[in-house]
Amino acid sequence: MTSAGFNVTSSLTLVGFSSLSGHSSLLFFVFLLLYLFVLFSDSLVIYIICSQRALHRPMFTFVASFLLNSLTASTLIYPKIMSDLLLSGAGLVQVSRTLCLCQGFFVSSLGGASFMLLSAMAFDRYLSICYPMHYAVLVTPAKVVQMLLLCWMLPSILVAASMLLASRLPLCRVQLNRLKEVFTHVKRLLSCRRDS
């Protein structure tokens, strides 16, 4: 379909996966082991923090939230990579524009939440070290919940706004040779310009 003189498509072809077709079984096994390790280790630590009453403190709440963020991101990324590795042996991997935008939203918002959670953990440690006598007053459970909501919601809102704007732009390139191009050249990928 064409729009204003540009070729607009609804899917991307990931050409880079076809070069990995000889090693796709090995890479699938490596990614499966990594994914299972992340699932097991993060779930175990979250379970221990939730089950032990002595660990119900702000510092461990932030650690559990950070691990939950890691678990969510891993669940969004690893299965998609593994399925693409399996499909790369059959030919080129096609990704719909909607899936590309959704995955970009989740990866970006969870990445931003990771940085904000690390900042909140650092701020919590700063208050506990520099103001030990006032720590219980400064860091209440209600304030911890507010900080966690801020850490999770602010990146999601900011990324949603940018993804909404990006979804309105036409998709100009249909083949990506490297996965790096999706994240580093998003503007060039989505914005079509007329050469005068």
From TrEMBL:
<keyword id="KW-0812">Transmembrane</keyword>
<protein>
    <submittedName>
        <fullName>Olfactory receptor 6V1</fullName>
    </submittedName>
</protein>
<dbReference type="Pfam" id="PF00001">
    <property type="entry name" value="7tm_1"/>
</dbReference>
<feature type="transmembrane region" description="Helical">
    <location>
        <begin position="60"/>
        <end position="78"/>
    </location>
</feature>
<keyword id="KW-0297">G-protein coupled receptor</keyword>
<feature type="transmembrane region" description="Helical">
    <location>
        <begin position="98"/>
        <end position="123"/>
    </location>
</feature>
<dbReference type="GO" id="GO:0005886">
    <property type="term" value="C:plasma membrane"/>
</dbReference>
<comment type="similarity">
    <text>Belongs to the G-protein coupled receptor 1 family.</text>
</comment>
<feature type="transmembrane region" description="Helical">
    <location>
        <begin position="26"/>
        <end position="48"/>
    </location>
</feature>
<keyword id="KW-0552">Olfaction</keyword>
<dbReference type="GO" id="GO:0007608">
    <property type="term" value="P:sensory perception of smell"/>
</dbReference>
<feature type="transmembrane region" description="Helical">
    <location>
        <begin position="144"/>
        <end position="166"/>
    </location>
</feature>
<dbReference type="InterPro" id="IPR000276">
    <property type="entry name" value="GPCR_Rhodpsn"/>
</dbReference>
<keyword id="KW-1133">Transmembrane helix</keyword>
<keyword id="KW-0472">Membrane</keyword>
<keyword id="KW-1003">Cell membrane</keyword>
<feature type="domain" description="G-protein coupled receptors family 1 profile">
    <location>
        <begin position="41"/>
        <end position="196"/>
    </location>
</feature>
<keyword id="KW-0716">Sensory transduction</keyword>
<dbReference type="InterPro" id="IPR050939">
    <property type="entry name" value="Olfactory_GPCR1"/>
</dbReference>
<keyword id="KW-0675">Receptor</keyword>
<dbReference type="InterPro" id="IPR017452">
    <property type="entry name" value="GPCR_Rhodpsn_7TM"/>
</dbReference>
<keyword id="KW-0807">Transducer</keyword>
<dbReference type="GO" id="GO:0004930">
    <property type="term" value="F:G protein-coupled receptor activity"/>
</dbReference>
